[in-house]
Amino acid sequence: MKKSFFILGLATLVLISCKKNETVATTSNAEVTETQTVGQEGVLDNESTPDIVKLAASNEDLSTLVKAVQSAGLATSLSNAGPFTVFAPVNAAFDKLPAGTVEDLLKPENNGKLNDILGHHTYVGVIKTDQFSDGQNLGMVDGKNITIKMVDGKPTVNGTVNIIASVPASNGIVHVVDGVILPE
């Protein structure tokens, strides 16, 4: 008899737990649905290491890059798991381009060209600064290569674009650079 009450009590506890989990799952699914509508970049998380897009968005010196990534529709892709190595040009790097270039690239009809340029700044995988070597070729997302050249003991992209800073992200690493890397 005592065993029956124990089993009945345990079954009731399991049912109550399932009901609670069901409610949590429903709430969680609603949150996931809302998040998926916005994309991975819309997930609010102020405690974890930021992903590449959130890291860039938090730096005013990268606002032109962030605008380009959003315009090209790549914010969700670069917020996903990766891993990615992104060479992120500062605003001053975009300012070095001929007048009107950035504005022209941000037009919807130039989305393909913008995607190619941004893809030329993105490598699938993580390469830290100390892993670069002279003459190293990296196959970028756009299907073309960049070459790492060591200048005065420091890695540069194609011998002309300097790495200013390197910041780890939850889904890769961002190398902040002083030039826009244009595909040939």
What fraction of residues sit in β-strands? Answer: 15-25%
Strand order of the largest sheet: 2-1-7-6-5-4-3
CATH class of the largest domain: Mainly Beta
| Total number of domains | 2
Q: State the shape.
A: globular
Distance between the termini: 83 Å
By DSSP, the count of extended strands is 7
So, the CATH homologous superfamily of the largest domain?
FAS1 domain
Structural class: alpha+beta
In CATH, the topology of the largest domain is named FAS1 domain
- Could you name the ranges where pLDDT drops below 50 across 5 or more consecutive residues? 1-41
Tell me the major beta sheet: 7 strands, mixed
What does this structure look like?
It is a single chain. With 184 residues, this protein is an alpha+beta fold. It has two domains: 2-38; 47-177, FAS1 domain. 41% of the residues lie in helices and 21% in strands. It has helices spanning 2-38, 52-57, 63-71, 75-79, 91-95, 101-105, 111-119, and strands at 84-89, 122-124, 136-139, 145-151, 154-157, 161-169, 172-177. A seven-stranded mixed β-sheet has the order 2-1-7-6-5-4-3. Strand 4 (145-151) and strand 5 (154-157) form a beta hairpin. The radius of gyration is 23 Å and the shape is globular. The protein starts with a helix and ends in a 7-residue tail after the last strand. Mean pLDDT is 80; it is low at 1-41. This is Fasciclin domain-containing protein. One of its GO terms (cellular component) is extracellular space.
